[in-house]
Automatic annotation (TrEMBL):
Chain spans, region Disordered: 100-141
Keywords: Hydrolase
InterPro entries: Pep_chain_release_fac_I
Start-end of Basic residues biased regions: 102-118, 126-135
Gene3D superfamilies named among the record's database cross-references: 3.30.160.20
Top-rank lineage group of the source organism: Bacteria
Protein name: Aminoacyl-tRNA hydrolase
Natural source organism: Thiohalocapsa halophila
UniProt-listed Pfam families: RF-1
Statement: the UniProt record of this protein carries the keyword Hydrolase: yes
Molecular functions (GO terms): hydrolase activity
Keyword Hydrolase: yes
SUPFAM superfamilies per record: Peptidyl-tRNA hydrolase domain-like
């Protein structure tokens, strides 16, 4: 079975490893004995399913969730059952990869127009006049 992220990107089940641990926070009678929180691990650096550009953007986007070996870890403990936490972790991984697959538009540096520069200078002059009028009046003291 595969995790279909985009039409071009599908993650094979063998690339994902799951572990279930005890969930933090308040709970009922089972909080200290049932392991419902899911830990989903995905090796970003060595994944054959990801193109190079997506891989680099994913590592940057995931930030501290990627360790020094390039393994992305997602902790899911929002729900009370294993199945829902497992599905939540997979959805979050798919959303993260989908976001990383979007190529950002390159920024073109622009300059302000001559009219914009003139408006800015005129506004500065007006502000200076206003402040000058607020000062004390010199003359007959």
């Amino acid at each position: 079975m595969t995790l279909q992220v985009t039409p071009n990107i599908a993650i094979d089940e063998d690339e994902l490893s799951e572990r279930f641990v005890r969930a933090p926070g308040p709970g009922g009678q089972n909080v200290n004995k049932v392991e419902t929180a899911a830990q989903l691990r995905f090796d970003v650096r060595h994944s054959p399913s990801l193109p190079a550009g997506v891989r680099a953007r994913l590592e940057k986007l995931a930030g501290s969730r990627v360790d020094s070996d390039g393994v992305l870890t997602i902790h899911a403990h929002r729900h009370r059952t294993r199945e829902r936490n497992r599905a939540d972790a997979r959805e979050r991984l798919a959303a993260l990869i989908a976001k990383a697959s979007h190529v950002p538009k390159p920024r073109r540096p622009t300059k302000p127009s001559r009219a914009a520069k003139a408006r800015r200078v005129e506004e500065k002059k007006q502000r200076a006049r206003t402040k000058r009028l607020r000062g004390s009046i010199r003359g007959d003291e």
